[in-house]
Amino acid sequence: MAVWENRTYRHLFTAQVLALVGTGLATVALGLTAYRLAGPDAGLVLSTALAIKMVAYVLLAPVVTAVADRLPRRGFLVAADVLRMAVAAALPFVGHVWQVYVLIAVLQSASAAFTPAFQATIPTVLLDEADYTRALSLSRLAYDLESLASPVLAAALLAVADARWLFAGTAFGFAASATLVLTTALPAGPRPGEHPPARRGTLLDRVTRGLRIFAATPRLRAVVGVNLAVAAAGAMVLVNTVVIVRGHLGGSDPTVAVALGVSGAGSIAAALVLPHVLTRVPDRDVMLGACAALVTVLTTAAALTAALPGAWWPVILVAWALIGAADCLAQTPVGRLIRRSGHPDDLPALFAAQFTVSHLGWLATYLLAGVLGAVSIPLALAVLAAVALAGLAQAWRAWPAADPDIVEHVHTESDPHHLADATGGPGAWRHTHRLVIDDLHPRWPTTRPTRSWSTTSTR
């Protein structure tokens, strides 16, 4: 909690928690609204709403970030929260299913704009690496605790009020978040009229900038595989817990909540120890080790559920707890890698790229877990274990064991300002500095020192 002494971070974290609680209430209220409007077809309405959410996340995050990156950060965050508040306030009055779809599309588009911009703000507020790591763990704790607390809060509200009032709680959460951001002094950006490299070029250049940096940076290419492994295991838990508990084990609704809570408890436990682990173990070892654990747990659970149909309860509870912990260990340090891998002006584009790539993995694994879980739970576990293994293999191959920040490299074109400290002659200027992909370094240097590395200067 040492980072709590930073007033700016304290306001931003509180805003995040309030918005998360509001979103959790909206999740419960949306299910009840779908049932009010569609009755037995409520599941179809909800699945369509979730599909709209994922499409908005995958397609819109880079586009909105590229457009918004020319705007003041604080005003943009506040505007996104106000838009989400307005949608939440309108949802209780819908009378047709198509209206739900339209409002959900607007709401999730605003979230696709807000979340990467918010994530990119935190590393500019907490400059110390240890503080930023603590902030990442706190953020993970906030997500996990919200998943446990929001259903309880929703149940308490439903005991005294109509389901539509849950949307009032959602609107209040977004309004409070907007107020906290509005009263917080964020780091100043470029002066009006000044556009750093991340904000230059055509709209297409700005939209694809984060994805291009991801593709050119080895450690970020590895994050794509990590995202896939995390999504494979997480989708199994989120999609099939109710199928396993209610359909195969004859449990009740509270029992489903307990099973999901076990996974959340594992994640919370991992988040509490993660800052201490990362002071002793490299990010690569923690993240790839966690992905390997996910593969092992899914594979073992597949074998045990197939061989021991009468012993599913202990298998599922232990597996879900381990998946929650490993998911946290694999995913939480991603913010550290992104901060290492880009200039401050590129952080919004990089977080938007991560937002898109990670949710694309979730979209695919949600569908896979749902289709296979309806056929056979052991089969679903086995196939998702194979998907997680593919993600681990890609991450392992892309991320070299030696991954320094300071890299010696060669330029084949002269730039007097950038190469002031370089050595060598025409066509081969060699120097060393913290390396990230940018306009002067569009490609990662080869590991073979005899090959020169060509860059194109834009200055």
TrEMBL record:
Transmembrane intervals: 12-38, 44-68, 165-186, 222-244, 256-274, 286-305, 311-330, 350-369, 375-393
Family matches, as InterPro entries: MFS, MFS_trans_sf
Membrane-protein topology: Multi-pass membrane protein
Molecular function per GO: transmembrane transporter activity
Subcellular location: Cell membrane
The protein's name in its UniProt record: MFS family permease
CDD domains: MFS_MefA_like
UniProtKB keywords: Cell membrane, Membrane, Transmembrane, Transmembrane helix
GO terms for cellular component: plasma membrane
Coiled-coil features, chain-numbered ranges: none
Main location per the UniProt record: membrane
Organism for this UniProt entry: Longispora fulva
